[in-house]
Task: structure prediction
Amino acid sequence: MSRWLFAPAPLARVAVLRLLVYGFVPVDVLLTTTYIAGHGDLPASAYQPLMVGRLLHLPTPSALLVPAVEVALLLATAVALSGRAPRLAGGAVAALYLQWMLIGMSYGKVDHDRFAFLVALAVLPTVGAARPGSRERSAAAGWALRCIQLAVVATYFLSTIAKLRYGGWGWPNSGTLTWALLRRGHGFALPLLDHPELLRLAQWGIVGMELASPLLLVVPRRWQYLGVAGLVVFHLATFATIGIIFLPHLVAMAAFLPLERLGGLRVRVRDCVPATRVAQ
Amino acid sequence: MGLLLGAGLLLLGSVRGSDDWFPFGPFLMYAGAGPTDGVVESTALHATTAAGAHVVVPESSSGMRRAELEGQLATFVARPQLLAAVADTHAQRQPREARYIGVQVVQRRYEVHDRRVVGHTDVVLAGWGAP
Result:
């Protein structure tokens, strides 16, 4: 078990994943999850702090606090993206992003699309220095990537546990997708409402996929990539029909991919530059 | 060590916890079983503008997502005057648009029979009008 958990992995993969994860933070804050910034305008009476917020005695979000956390988070992310002080900057991003999430989810609705992303933010700093062009492998990199992969798989597998707990064994035969389409369905997806048997089949498919997700951790690499591709298709189909997409989760899922090859590309380009100059 | 603690919290959260345990709460993505027969509810904020128009309030104007609105439904039903905050937020964010002089929480109730929609009704759950 511990050999599997600490199997050395390329530092370059961690470095490229950091670029993706830290690069996504400003996208998330400024473009795709903008409602959080709006919470500063809501009355303090609407604030229902979550357990972590209560335990840490986090202050009630206000028109001053929310932009302050936002700016601090974006600044820390910029430092983390530069690759300087990876432990300190990465740690700051993880803490500030968690606070940002608590600001977002303390108003009556908690999102479930970013557990793996939060895990990525928490473990990526532990690896220390890593460059995209590095050819080294390390156990620390292996452990961090495994943690993120486990979090991705847990998100699927445990969501079936939640379905059993809240929806009961009858969930796959329920009217859940009908319900989802009625509340959020895009116009062109609404004809699906006329095919309830197809929707029921899709519900069985979802449960089957979620229960099979742990296989991602043990199958050979090619099957792993195929599995990840299948999951991406699932998320895109969900987005096309009911407009929900787990972007931070998808970013974290990149921990399954051979990202170090992208890092290699950059090095190769750099290697080529002097040669081109000579040719001129 | 940290991994074991995190995994333990996560498992416990899935079996025993609630949304309050974030980020270790259960993964409730459509975990509830929707009815095959019964009523499906969808709640929205509606507003009457100073220009006399009746509009659906977009999330960008209310500062609230639908799920948040539904999470706070009981509060708005008990204290409909809180809906005035929606008019204030809208006036602040869309200063060029006509102001809201009335805000209502409207629930659309779809009747589902054997997984098929057979009809719907709209019910006003809470309302506020500018004095």
Remarks:
- The beta strands of chain B are 38-49, 54-56, 100-113, 116-129.
- The mean pLDDT of chain B is 89.
